[in-house]
């Protein structure tokens, strides 16, 4: 097919979205190029605007030491971390929705975000009693969150393999139970915390990238990159799983292995992101739906679009959160929820009842 080849009404309805041409490119590559350009623009804006305005063109002029320190020491790690967390949440959400064949599935569904939250909150409330060295204090909170996420993942795996057979239904049920149990633990910690701890606890639960440093961002980047690489390799099996597990099995998909990889790679990526930033809502739920509207449901292109959209949305939300009330800073989750909730209601309203 060429860009000028006419298509009948019937053939256009049955054609895959990748056969639509935009500016001489197939639709999906064209959309990805536009999303990448949008992400680059958002990154440039996030690096430039803030409490200390920066000019990237004058960054290496003599006497620009303060500007360079702000850019490379404070703003760059924050922007990178926000992009990584957005990518982790969006890609994990897209894969989990595909695996469960459920549009409401998101990374919080399997309880990993809740486990990471409980670990971090326990450190906020009880950390002073541990007598940590000053050099270890900045790493204590993310490390506690990672431990919480890992414990939840191990618990999920143990329950799912309790009878020697990996069960996705069990994963869902255990995730619901763990989310409820995490809510109880968080409530107890809120009750016993003092005023300062309660403020830190509530602010962390609403998400913030203000603690970003390269020492935190680089390990998070490695974990999320490794998880993303494995998830990308599950794109074709996830496409076949849309036909149903029996059909996918007969087409050569090792269904249980794919399910394990998706769940544990999603847990790794989300746990690492939550450990560094706190809980950022709605990104993992809404972004995959937007990506499907743009590029279709094929998971190879869907994951790329979700990664670009998730990164761009989270960086943009963080930029808004730290500038709209400067020098005060809004929690990021307030911004993402304010954007995501109305869109999700619109998405529900546009779906015709069957």
How would you describe this structure to a colleague?
With 354 residues, this protein is mainly α. It has a single domain, classed as ABC transporter involved in vitamin B12 uptake, BtuC. The protein has 14 helices and two strands, in the order H-E-E-H-H-H-H-H-H-H-H-H-H-H-H-H. It has helices at residues 9-14, 27-48, 65-100, 112-126, 137-160, 168-192, 195-205, 214-232, 235-241, 245-250, 255-277, 283-295, 299-323, 332-350; strands at 21-22, 25-26. A two-stranded antiparallel sheet has the order 1-2. Helix 4 packs parallel to helix 6 (168-192).
Brief digest:
This protein is mostly helical and 354 residues long. The chain is built from 14 helices and 2 strands, in the order H-E-E-H-H-H-H-H-H-H-H-H-H-H-H-H.
Write the layout of secondary structure elements.
Elements: H1 9-14, E1 21-22, E2 25-26, H2 27-48, H3 65-100, H4 112-126, H5 137-160, H6 168-192, H7 195-205, H8 214-232, H9 235-241, H10 245-250, H11 255-277, H12 283-295, H13 299-323, H14 332-350
Antiparallel strand pairs: 1-2
Helix pairs in contact: 2-3, 2-13, 3-8, 3-11, 3-12, 3-13, 4-5, 4-6, 4-7, 4-11, 5-6, 5-11, 8-11, 12-13, 12-14, 13-14
Can you tell me the CATH topology?
ABC transporter involved in vitamin B12 uptake, BtuC
Number of strands: 2
Question: What count of structural domains?
Answer: 1
The CATH class label is Mainly Alpha
Q: Span from first to last CA?
A: 35 Å
Element pattern in H and E: HEEHHHHHHHHHHHHH
What is the strand arrangement across the widest sheet? 1-2
CATH architecture: Orthogonal Bundle
Gross morphology: globular
The major β-sheet equals: 2 strands, antiparallel
Radius of gyration: 22 Å
Q: Give the structural class.
A: mainly alpha
Average of per-residue pLDDT values: 82
């Amino acid at each position: 097919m060429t860009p000028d080849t006419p298509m009948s009404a019937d053939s256009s309805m049955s054609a895959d979205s990748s056969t639509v041409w935009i500016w001489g490119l197939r639709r999906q590559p064209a959309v990805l190029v536009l999303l990448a350009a949008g992400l680059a623009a958002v990154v440039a804006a996030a690096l430039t605007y803030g409490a200390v305005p920066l000019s990237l063109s004058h960054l290496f002029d003599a006497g620009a030491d303060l500007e360079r320190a702000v850019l490379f020491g404070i703003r760059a790690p924050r922007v990178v971390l926000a992009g990584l967390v957005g990518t982790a949440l969006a890609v994990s959400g897209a894969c989990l929705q595909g695996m469960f064949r459920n549009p409401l599935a998101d990374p919080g569904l399997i309880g990993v975000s809740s486990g990471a939250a409980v670990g971090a909150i326990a450190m906020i409330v009880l950390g002073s009693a541990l007598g940590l060295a000053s050099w270890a204090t900045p790493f204590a909170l993310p490390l506690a969150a990672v431990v919480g996420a890992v414990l939840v993942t191990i618990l999920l795996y143990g329950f799912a393999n309790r009878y020697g057979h990996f069960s996705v239904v069990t994963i869902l049920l255990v995730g619901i139970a763990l989310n409820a149990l995490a809510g109880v633990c968080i409530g107890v910690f809120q009750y016993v915390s003092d005023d300062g701890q309660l403020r830190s606890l509530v602010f962390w639960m609403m998400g913030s990238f203000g603690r970003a440093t390269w020492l935190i961002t680089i390990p998070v980047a490695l974990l999320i990159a490794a998880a993303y690489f494995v998830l990308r390799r599950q794109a074709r099996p996830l496409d076949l799983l849309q036909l149903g597990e029996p059909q996918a099995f007969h087409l050569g998909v090792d269904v249980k292995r794919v399910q394990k990889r998706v769940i544990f790679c999603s847990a790794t990526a989300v746990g690492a992101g939550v450990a560094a930033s706190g809980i950022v809502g709605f990104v993992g739920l809404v972004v995959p739906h937007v990506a499907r509207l743009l590029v279709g449901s094929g998971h190879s292109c869907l994951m790329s679009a979700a990664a670009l959209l998730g990164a761009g949305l989270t960086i943009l939300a963080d930029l808004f959160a730290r500038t709209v009330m400067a020098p005060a800073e809004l929690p990021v989750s307030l911004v993402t929820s304010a954007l995501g909730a109305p869109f999700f209601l619109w998405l529900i309203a546009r779906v015709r009842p069957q």
